[in-house]
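Input set for joint prediction.
Command: fold jointly, output tokens.
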Amino acid sequence: MIADSEHGSQHMPEQEVQATSPQPSGLPPRFSAFIFIDGFKAALRSVFFYVLVGNYVGMGALAHGFGFSFGWMALSTLLVWAAPAQVILISTLGTATLVEVAVAVTLSSVRFLPMVAALLPMLRRAGTRQRELLLPMHFTAISVWVEGIRLLPSRPREQRIAFYNGLGAGLMSAALIGGAFGFYLATKLPPLLAASLLFFTPLALLMSASRNSRTLLDRLAFGLGLVLGPVIAAQKVGLDLMWTGLIAGSIAYAVHWVREARR
Amino acid sequence: MSSGMEPYLALILLGFLPSEVWRWLGLVIGRGLDEESEIILWVRGVATALVAAVVARIVLIPPGALASVPLSVRVAAIGCGFLGFLLFRRSALAGVLVGEAVLIAGATAFAG
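tokens >
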């Protein structure tokens, strides 16, 4: 990594800056590693660690059920790092058109835009470069984000990126452990228990959506999606996940809008 | 999926990039975006409905061993799971346990 030469180098020759603080965040590397480990430990203490292990046991079984390799499943956790997007990818890649898969995945992940936007002011400080933020942004998923928003304010600003990276790596390893366990179990369990493991993912998605939906908009969108999904799929028009999302989501939004306008 | 590089290429092009692009966009244009703005609310509705459709899809067109469980049992199990969630003080764990119990009991009853 290259030292930040635009900021903080006024008092030292450039060579010396690079020698003493190779971390772009301006922290000595060992110190930064300690902060990272602090973040990792915070992940182990988080309830999300255990929720993620459970969720990804189901994901591992699902990947096995749809015929994916273990390496592919683990890589999808590392690269996609979004449970709904991974479920869509795993469950549609074999049957839907490529465009449909990509559209459904991207629609399910739009939520990252406002999450990232809300998180950035906490991580940025004068002189923070965009590329230092790429890794924290990649780690941003609902679990890491919620814990980050909760824990970051108590950390000095110059420690936050390393801490958040540790938090993200810790929670991602929970998902990798769960996924590996689920994949392994799916190969060993008798059919009935394997079926119950596969059923875990739809149940967990339903529960987390129900728990997070506090507004009429969320509830209506989920309920309509559940009912309209199969109806639209039966029309065989293609892109049924996308159409369900757009139609059911727009109806839910319209109802919400009308209600707000009446107030 | 077929073996070889294809699934990995699909993972990058259809999984990683379509998802990651929103994190990058958030980094580039995210400044000053209001989380309660109308467009964000609409997007949240679309994404929520899409996840619901995925739940319905897995229950109706299930993978692997789940396909051997009768459709009626799968639908009953997801419904009972939701009822369990509502009855036990909106506990996600209770919902999952009730749903799984009904699935296993139902599948056993139909098999035997």
